[in-house]
Design goal:
Helix 2 runs antiparallel to helix 3. The protein has two domains: 132 residues, no CATH class; 109 residues, Ribonuclease H-like motif. It has eight helices and 14 strands. The relative contact order is 0.08. It is α+β, with helices and mostly antiparallel strands. Helices cover 30% and strands 23% of the residues. Its main location: nucleus. It is found in: Nucleus. It catalyses: DNA(n) + a 2'-deoxyribonucleoside 5'-triphosphate = DNA(n+1) + diphosphate. One of its GO terms (molecular function) is DNA binding. It is an enzyme of class 2 (transferase).
Length: 299
Protein backbone atom coordinates (compact mmCIF):
# COMPACT_ATOMS: atom_id res chain seq x y z
CA UNK A 1 0.00 0.00 0.00
CA UNK A 2 1.36 3.41 -0.97
CA UNK A 3 0.33 6.30 1.28
CA UNK A 4 1.12 9.98 1.51
CA UNK A 5 1.40 11.21 5.09
CA UNK A 6 2.29 14.60 6.48
CA UNK A 7 5.16 15.83 8.63
CA UNK A 8 7.81 13.47 10.02
CA UNK A 9 9.35 10.17 9.03
CA UNK A 10 10.63 9.45 12.54
CA UNK A 11 7.15 8.44 13.69
CA UNK A 12 6.54 5.85 11.00
CA UNK A 13 6.26 2.18 12.02
CA UNK A 14 9.38 0.00 11.65
CA UNK A 15 7.93 -2.08 8.79
CA UNK A 16 7.58 0.88 6.48
CA UNK A 17 9.66 2.03 3.54
CA UNK A 18 9.86 5.76 2.79
CA UNK A 19 9.66 6.50 -0.94
CA UNK A 20 9.92 10.27 -1.09
CA UNK A 21 10.33 12.89 1.63
CA UNK A 22 9.31 16.51 1.15
CA UNK A 23 8.98 19.52 3.45
CA UNK A 24 5.29 18.80 4.01
CA UNK A 25 4.76 15.17 3.13
CA UNK A 26 6.03 11.62 3.01
CA UNK A 27 5.25 8.98 0.43
CA UNK A 28 5.49 5.65 2.19
CA UNK A 29 4.83 2.01 1.28
CA UNK A 30 3.28 -0.27 3.93
CA UNK A 31 2.51 -4.02 3.81
CA UNK A 32 -0.98 -4.95 2.58
CA UNK A 33 -1.59 -6.58 5.95
CA UNK A 34 -1.07 -3.26 7.74
CA UNK A 35 -4.34 -1.91 9.24
CA UNK A 36 -5.85 0.87 7.17
CA UNK A 37 -9.28 2.00 8.38
CA UNK A 38 -11.46 1.14 11.37
CA UNK A 39 -15.21 1.66 11.32
CA UNK A 40 -16.76 2.50 14.69
CA UNK A 41 -20.51 2.28 15.18
CA UNK A 42 -22.18 5.25 16.82
CA UNK A 43 -25.51 5.81 18.58
CA UNK A 44 -25.81 9.22 16.93
CA UNK A 45 -28.76 9.08 14.50
CA UNK A 46 -27.07 11.31 11.90
CA UNK A 47 -23.69 9.54 12.16
CA UNK A 48 -24.26 5.83 12.69
CA UNK A 49 -20.70 5.04 11.60
CA UNK A 50 -17.36 6.80 12.01
CA UNK A 51 -14.36 5.78 9.89
CA UNK A 52 -10.95 6.30 11.46
CA UNK A 53 -7.68 6.09 9.53
CA UNK A 54 -5.45 3.88 11.66
CA UNK A 55 -2.10 5.21 10.28
CA UNK A 56 -3.30 8.81 10.60
CA UNK A 57 -4.69 8.37 14.12
CA UNK A 58 -1.62 6.56 15.45
CA UNK A 59 0.81 9.03 13.90
CA UNK A 60 -1.15 11.96 15.33
CA UNK A 61 -1.04 10.38 18.80
CA UNK A 62 2.71 9.78 18.53
CA UNK A 63 3.34 13.33 17.33
CA UNK A 64 1.18 14.75 20.12
CA UNK A 65 3.07 12.75 22.73
CA UNK A 66 6.52 13.46 21.35
CA UNK A 67 6.31 16.97 19.92
CA UNK A 68 3.75 18.96 21.91
CA UNK A 69 5.11 22.24 23.22
CA UNK A 70 3.93 22.40 26.84
CA UNK A 71 5.52 25.82 27.36
CA UNK A 72 3.76 27.67 24.56
CA UNK A 73 3.14 31.25 25.70
CA UNK A 74 0.47 33.60 24.41
CA UNK A 75 0.35 37.34 25.10
CA UNK A 76 -2.99 38.23 26.75
CA UNK A 77 -2.25 41.73 28.08
CA UNK A 78 0.11 43.90 25.98
CA UNK A 79 0.11 46.68 28.60
CA UNK A 80 1.45 44.51 31.41
CA UNK A 81 3.12 42.02 29.06
CA UNK A 82 1.18 39.22 30.70
CA UNK A 83 1.43 35.81 29.08
CA UNK A 84 -0.41 32.57 29.68
CA UNK A 85 1.21 29.20 29.16
CA UNK A 86 -0.53 26.29 27.50
CA UNK A 87 0.20 23.17 25.52
CA UNK A 88 0.27 23.65 21.74
CA UNK A 89 0.69 21.24 18.86
CA UNK A 90 -0.39 22.33 15.40
CA UNK A 91 1.15 19.38 13.56
CA UNK A 92 -1.31 16.83 12.20
CA UNK A 93 -1.17 13.95 9.77
CA UNK A 94 -3.54 13.60 6.86
CA UNK A 95 -3.48 10.32 4.98
CA UNK A 96 -4.00 10.15 1.22
CA UNK A 97 -4.35 6.76 -0.40
CA UNK A 98 -3.71 3.96 -0.52
CA UNK A 99 -2.53 3.98 -4.11
CA UNK A 100 -1.63 1.16 -6.45
CA UNK A 101 1.90 2.27 -7.27
CA UNK A 102 4.39 5.11 -7.21
CA UNK A 103 7.05 5.40 -9.91
CA UNK A 104 10.26 7.24 -8.99
CA UNK A 105 13.19 7.76 -11.40
CA UNK A 106 16.72 6.88 -10.29
CA UNK A 107 19.71 9.16 -10.68
CA UNK A 108 22.16 8.28 -13.44
CA UNK A 109 25.07 9.25 -11.19
CA UNK A 110 25.78 8.06 -7.67
CA UNK A 111 25.24 10.76 -5.05
CA UNK A 112 23.53 13.12 -7.49
CA UNK A 113 20.14 14.36 -6.32
CA UNK A 114 17.11 14.60 -8.59
CA UNK A 115 14.34 17.16 -8.75
CA UNK A 116 10.97 16.04 -7.45
CA UNK A 117 9.64 13.62 -10.08
CA UNK A 118 7.11 10.88 -9.57
CA UNK A 119 3.96 9.30 -10.98
CA UNK A 120 1.27 7.91 -8.69
CA UNK A 121 -1.48 5.53 -9.82
CA UNK A 122 -4.88 4.77 -8.34
CA UNK A 123 -6.03 1.21 -7.73
CA UNK A 124 -7.91 1.25 -11.06
CA UNK A 125 -4.72 2.14 -12.96
CA UNK A 126 -5.62 5.79 -13.56
CA UNK A 127 -3.05 8.49 -12.91
CA UNK A 128 -3.56 10.10 -9.48
CA UNK A 129 -0.67 12.54 -9.43
CA UNK A 130 2.23 13.50 -11.68
CA UNK A 131 5.16 15.73 -10.73
CA UNK A 132 8.15 16.91 -12.71
CA UNK A 133 7.75 14.86 -15.88
CA UNK A 134 7.80 16.33 -19.38
CA UNK A 135 4.53 14.65 -20.34
CA UNK A 136 2.64 17.55 -18.70
CA UNK A 137 4.75 20.38 -20.13
CA UNK A 138 3.59 22.49 -23.03
CA UNK A 139 5.88 22.57 -26.05
CA UNK A 140 7.87 19.55 -24.87
CA UNK A 141 9.06 16.93 -27.33
CA UNK A 142 6.11 14.80 -28.40
CA UNK A 143 8.54 11.89 -28.54
CA UNK A 144 9.29 12.25 -24.83
CA UNK A 145 5.62 12.68 -23.93
CA UNK A 146 4.53 9.54 -25.79
CA UNK A 147 7.48 7.59 -24.42
CA UNK A 148 6.76 8.54 -20.81
CA UNK A 149 3.03 7.83 -21.11
CA UNK A 150 3.76 4.40 -22.58
CA UNK A 151 6.36 3.59 -19.92
CA UNK A 152 4.02 4.61 -17.08
CA UNK A 153 1.38 2.20 -18.38
CA UNK A 154 3.99 -0.55 -18.71
CA UNK A 155 4.92 -0.24 -15.03
CA UNK A 156 1.43 -1.48 -14.11
CA UNK A 157 1.78 -4.72 -16.07
CA UNK A 158 3.12 -8.01 -14.72
CA UNK A 159 2.84 -9.82 -11.41
CA UNK A 160 6.52 -9.74 -10.41
CA UNK A 161 9.39 -7.28 -10.52
CA UNK A 162 10.96 -9.19 -13.41
CA UNK A 163 7.73 -9.05 -15.43
CA UNK A 164 7.35 -5.32 -14.76
CA UNK A 165 10.90 -4.62 -15.92
CA UNK A 166 10.35 -6.75 -19.01
CA UNK A 167 7.19 -4.80 -19.82
CA UNK A 168 8.97 -1.47 -19.44
CA UNK A 169 12.00 -2.68 -21.42
CA UNK A 170 9.76 -3.67 -24.32
CA UNK A 171 8.37 -0.14 -24.56
CA UNK A 172 11.81 1.46 -24.17
CA UNK A 173 13.34 -0.82 -26.81
CA UNK A 174 10.64 0.12 -29.31
CA UNK A 175 11.29 3.85 -29.04
CA UNK A 176 15.06 3.42 -28.95
CA UNK A 177 14.79 1.34 -32.13
CA UNK A 178 12.90 4.22 -33.76
CA UNK A 179 15.77 6.57 -32.94
CA UNK A 180 18.65 4.21 -33.70
CA UNK A 181 17.07 3.36 -37.08
CA UNK A 182 16.62 7.10 -37.72
CA UNK A 183 12.88 6.56 -38.09
CA UNK A 184 13.44 4.62 -41.30
CA UNK A 185 9.85 3.35 -41.49
CA UNK A 186 8.16 6.56 -40.39
CA UNK A 187 6.65 9.22 -42.70
CA UNK A 188 8.36 12.62 -42.59
CA UNK A 189 5.20 14.32 -41.32
CA UNK A 190 5.01 11.97 -38.33
CA UNK A 191 8.73 12.35 -37.65
CA UNK A 192 8.44 16.14 -37.59
CA UNK A 193 5.63 15.89 -35.03
CA UNK A 194 7.70 13.60 -32.82
CA UNK A 195 11.01 15.49 -32.76
CA UNK A 196 10.02 19.16 -33.01
CA UNK A 197 10.00 21.34 -29.90
CA UNK A 198 7.84 24.39 -29.38
CA UNK A 199 8.79 27.40 -27.26
CA UNK A 200 6.96 30.69 -26.86
CA UNK A 201 8.90 33.92 -26.40
CA UNK A 202 7.33 36.06 -23.71
CA UNK A 203 9.13 39.20 -24.90
CA UNK A 204 10.09 40.77 -28.21
CA UNK A 205 13.19 39.30 -29.83
CA UNK A 206 15.10 42.58 -29.52
CA UNK A 207 14.49 42.62 -25.75
CA UNK A 208 16.63 39.51 -25.23
CA UNK A 209 19.84 41.30 -26.18
CA UNK A 210 22.84 38.96 -26.17
CA UNK A 211 21.05 36.10 -24.42
CA UNK A 212 21.30 32.67 -26.02
CA UNK A 213 18.69 29.93 -26.21
CA UNK A 214 17.19 27.57 -28.74
CA UNK A 215 14.08 29.74 -29.09
CA UNK A 216 16.13 32.92 -29.61
CA UNK A 217 18.23 31.22 -32.31
CA UNK A 218 15.04 29.95 -33.95
CA UNK A 219 13.45 33.41 -33.91
CA UNK A 220 16.53 35.02 -35.45
CA UNK A 221 16.59 32.44 -38.22
CA UNK A 222 12.88 32.85 -38.86
CA UNK A 223 13.56 36.57 -39.32
CA UNK A 224 16.29 35.78 -41.85
CA UNK A 225 14.05 34.06 -44.38
CA UNK A 226 10.58 35.32 -43.44
CA UNK A 227 11.44 38.93 -42.58
CA UNK A 228 11.73 40.96 -39.37
CA UNK A 229 8.01 41.69 -39.35
CA UNK A 230 7.30 38.04 -38.52
CA UNK A 231 9.21 38.19 -35.22
CA UNK A 232 8.69 41.76 -34.04
CA UNK A 233 5.95 41.00 -31.49
CA UNK A 234 6.07 39.19 -28.15
CA UNK A 235 4.52 35.74 -27.87
CA UNK A 236 6.23 34.32 -30.95
CA UNK A 237 5.87 30.54 -31.18
CA UNK A 238 9.17 28.91 -32.13
CA UNK A 239 9.07 25.34 -33.44
CA UNK A 240 12.46 23.83 -34.10
CA UNK A 241 14.59 20.72 -34.42
CA UNK A 242 18.20 20.20 -33.31
CA UNK A 243 20.73 19.57 -36.07
CA UNK A 244 23.97 17.61 -35.89
CA UNK A 245 25.94 20.42 -37.51
CA UNK A 246 27.83 22.62 -36.95
CA UNK A 247 29.57 19.83 -35.04
CA UNK A 248 30.95 20.93 -31.68
CA UNK A 249 28.61 23.92 -31.44
CA UNK A 250 26.30 24.25 -28.41
CA UNK A 251 22.70 23.11 -28.77
CA UNK A 252 21.49 26.72 -28.72
CA UNK A 253 23.31 27.32 -32.02
CA UNK A 254 21.96 24.16 -33.66
CA UNK A 255 18.26 24.98 -33.43
CA UNK A 256 16.71 24.93 -36.91
CA UNK A 257 13.21 26.41 -37.42
CA UNK A 258 10.75 23.81 -38.61
CA UNK A 259 9.30 26.31 -41.08
CA UNK A 260 12.39 26.05 -43.29
CA UNK A 261 11.38 22.53 -44.30
CA UNK A 262 8.14 23.91 -45.75
CA UNK A 263 9.97 26.59 -47.76
CA UNK A 264 10.81 26.36 -51.46
CA UNK A 265 13.65 23.96 -52.19
CA UNK A 266 16.08 26.69 -53.30
CA UNK A 267 15.38 28.73 -50.14
CA UNK A 268 15.67 25.64 -47.95
CA UNK A 269 19.02 24.66 -49.45
CA UNK A 270 20.45 28.17 -49.10
CA UNK A 271 19.63 28.61 -45.43
CA UNK A 272 20.40 25.07 -44.33
CA UNK A 273 23.86 25.33 -45.88
CA UNK A 274 24.34 28.64 -44.08
CA UNK A 275 23.05 27.58 -40.66
CA UNK A 276 24.76 24.17 -40.72
CA UNK A 277 27.97 25.83 -42.01
CA UNK A 278 28.20 23.27 -44.79
CA UNK A 279 28.50 25.10 -48.17
CA UNK A 280 28.92 21.85 -50.13
CA UNK A 281 25.93 20.14 -48.53
CA UNK A 282 23.87 18.05 -50.99
CA UNK A 283 21.72 15.79 -48.80
CA UNK A 284 18.82 17.74 -47.31
CA UNK A 285 16.89 14.79 -45.88
CA UNK A 286 15.74 15.57 -42.33
CA UNK A 287 17.20 12.24 -41.16
CA UNK A 288 20.67 13.33 -42.28
CA UNK A 289 20.34 16.71 -40.61
CA UNK A 290 19.03 15.65 -37.19
CA UNK A 291 21.28 15.16 -34.17
CA UNK A 292 20.04 11.68 -33.31
CA UNK A 293 22.33 11.40 -30.27
CA UNK A 294 20.64 14.47 -28.80
CA UNK A 295 17.22 12.86 -29.12
CA UNK A 296 18.42 9.53 -27.74
CA UNK A 297 19.80 11.38 -24.72
CA UNK A 298 16.52 13.27 -24.27
CA UNK A 299 14.60 10.01 -24.20
Amino acid sequence: MVFRDLFTISCLPPRRRPLELDTDGIWCVLPNSFPENFVIKSTHPKKPKVTISYPGAMLNIMVKEGFTNNQYQELVDPASLKYVSRSENSIFFEVDGPYLAMILPASKEEGKKLKKRYAVFNEDGSLAELKGFEVKRRGELQLVKIFQSSVFEAFLKGTSLEEVYASVAKVADYWLDVLYSKAANMPDSELFELISENRSMSRKLEDYGQQKSTSISTAKRLAEFLGDQMVKDAGLSCRFIISKKPEGSPVTERAIPLAIFQAELSVRKHYLRKWLKSPSMQDFDIRTILDWEYYIERL
